Amino acid sequence: MKKRKVEKEKAFDYAKFEQEAIQGLTEGKGLIGEHGVLTGMIGRLLSAAFEGEMDAHLDQEKKRSNRRNGYTDKTVRTALGPVSVRPPRDRNGSFEPTIIKKWDRSLAPELENQILHLYGKGTSYEDIGDHLKKMYGVSYSPSFISSITDRVFEEIETWRNRPLEEVYVVIYLDAVHYKVRENRKVLTKAVYSVYGVRMDGERDVLGLFIGDAEGARHWARVLENIKDRGVKDVLFFSVDGLNGFSEAIQGVFTRAVVQRCIVHMVRTSLKFVSWKDYKTVCQGLRSIYQQDSPEAAWEKLQEFKREWVGRYPEIAAKWEKDWCELSPFFDHPDAIRRVIYTTNPVEALHRILRKATKTKGAFISESALEKQLYLTLKHNEKSWKRKVRSWPQILQSLSNMYPERLAHVLV
Known about the structure:
Elements: H1 14-26, H2 37-60, E1 68-71, E2 74-78, E3 81-85, E4 88-90, E5 106-107, H3 109-120, H4 125-136, H5 142-149, H6 153-160, E6 167-182, E7 185-198, E8 203-211, H7 216-228, E9 233-239, H8 245-250, E10 257-260, H9 262-269, H10 275-289, H11 294-308, H12 313-321, H13 323-326, H14 334-340, H15 344-357, H16 366-378, H17 381-384, H18 391-401, H19 403-406
Parallel strand pairs: 2-5, 6-9, 9-10
Antiparallel strand pairs: 1-4, 2-3, 6-7, 7-8
């Protein structure tokens, strides 16, 4: 029986390509896209690379009498558009190309990165597909785009369990809520955000934890998690007025100072104030938290109480009740006060998350929510991963006030 001779693909002819490219451009073809002139060049270069890999593979397998066995047709997604290639085959089936694996259909990591970036910005699967189709002539189905975004779960797991710093200057704790489908119902889930300032002044998200409705017991488990990951000491916690917050924190980090958010407290105090009295009440509250010492602030609180006890008695009563958590920042210099007196930094973080998720409605699962939040953080780092202002001054004040707790991290 006569052996069939298998011809090799011809090597890439640059002169021929140049002529074809010029002709294509004069005919109105674009550079990229499905019929772009550069797209065709990518296909020919890939085919040439396949041939080189096959030659090297057959040289290594001479003793096994291996030889070529035709070609397969394959369409590969690239950054320039879809490309048709013909990977060669060998008789023994042992050829494994490295440039594009046997079952791979993509040579466009930059496209996949763009998909992740767009998804992190809150763009839907359908809109991402439309964008890539218009820009590159590449058709990605929603299910394929979903499979690409699903690849970050391993990365999320690594990020979720990464070791943390031993000491943090301040950690802001707050929760943001989302709708999630679960067991054919739409439930409200709390995302517990842990946003800290390291000893070098850089902000960092220590973790996002999804749970049921916000509560002190859930926060205690979150704090245990960051402790298990290496956090030994936290100087300050800045929190809102959730019941049991201080007890949950002190149960894990016994030496931490718990500072109640002054901005939250003012908002709560003004909730039922008449618009006629709004400005005056604001000025009275401002005169309390702008004092230089806790004693002076307490005196201003008593003055406020005498002035408004007839019309708004609940305001002063609430400040007095929570004074132990409202007053710690008075014992520190102005530079430190500005860092710890409010949870505004973590609220700014939540605004970034909400901006990307505002059109999502209910998420199909907790995993889908986690994927969205992680990619949003990753692709918006410039917005939240910033150094605290006047950090050298703050660090100097902290080293003077807490020398025994910071000595080993300041060397």
